[in-house]
Amino acid sequence: MKTLSGEKAKHVKLSDYIVTDPEILGGDPVFRGTRVPVASLFEHLESDCPLEEFLENFPSVSRAAAVAVIMAAQELTLERARR
Question: 14-81 architecture in CATH?
Fold first, then answer.
């Protein structure tokens, strides 16, 4: 599989980027070290906002974390489609 930049993809370990804690936003998955829900990334992308805009709106989320979550979603989607 190739990444968005065309490089060979490596397996993404989601626990490096996402945490679920009942004490943070009632247990909704958030980007590690933040209170930013992961769902907000996908909501931004679904509404045609570029990744850069999401990163500007949520400066506590690193580009690496956002891209890793997108790549993990791609990996999971392709794995399920091949079943």
Answer: Orthogonal Bundle (1.10)
User: Tokens representing 65?
Assistant: 């974390």
CA distance 62 to 10: 18
Contact (CB, 8 A) for 63 and 53: no
Give 50-53's long-range contacts (Cβ < 8 A, gap of 24+): none
- What's the residue count for the chain? 83
Amino acid at 57: N
pLDDT tens-digit series, residues 17-39 = 999 999 999 999 999 999 999 99
Q: Break the chain into its structural domains and give their ranges.
A: 14-81
